[in-house]
Amino acid sequence: MTDLTLPTIQLNGTSRATLSDGYGAAYRALQDAIRAFNEIEFHCRDYYVQPAGAWATAVTERDAASAHLRSVQQYLEAHLVHLGE
Fold it and tell me: For residues 38 and 69, what is the distance between their CA atoms, to the nearest angstrom?
């Protein structure tokens, strides 16, 4: 992920520890969510009674949702790297 506006650690701002704790907690929660998302049973047998193309559409939609999760993961990782975690 490029061109993020990352926080500047300075005397009048939030401490590095507080930011690290917050981003770290969000990252760990997201990892749990990604794991749970990936463990959802996802099979074409649950779509075959729908109109033609439903399985392909469901796969595309799931892939898009997974990409959004990865994007948030990259956002959090960039902050953690910036903060020295």
Answer: 11
